[in-house]
Amino acid sequence: MSAQAGFFRIRFRADPVELAFFRGGLNRWLLGLDWPATERQDAVLAINEACDNCVQQAFFRDGGGEVDARDLLERGRD
To answer: What is the 3-state secondary structure (H, E, C) of 11-37?
Structure first.
């Protein structure tokens, strides 16, 4: 397997509904990079968890705000 990476950045309202749209978009983006299903699911789960923590702090505690998610994802090397 060759190394494969991709940079992403997205900003969305700190709202649980927006988080669901983000998760779907992230999954589609990784599909476009031809990431294997298991690794894609793991990446989406981990990133969703981090963003969910932000949403909970901003939405439920402070009543608003935004999440600005950016990262470089890299898949294994030979």
So the answer is: EEECCHHHHHHHHHHHHHHHHHCCCCH
Sign of CA dihedral 32, 37, 49, 17: positive
For the range 49-54, what are the long-range contacts, defined as Cβ-Cβ under 8 Å and sequence gap of 24 or more? 51/19, 51/22, 52/19, 54/14
What predicted TM-score, i.e. pTM, was given to this entire model? 0.74
- With a cut of 80, say whether residue 52 has pLDDT above it: yes
CB 72 within 8 A of CB 59: no
Neighbours of 36 (CB within 10 A): 12
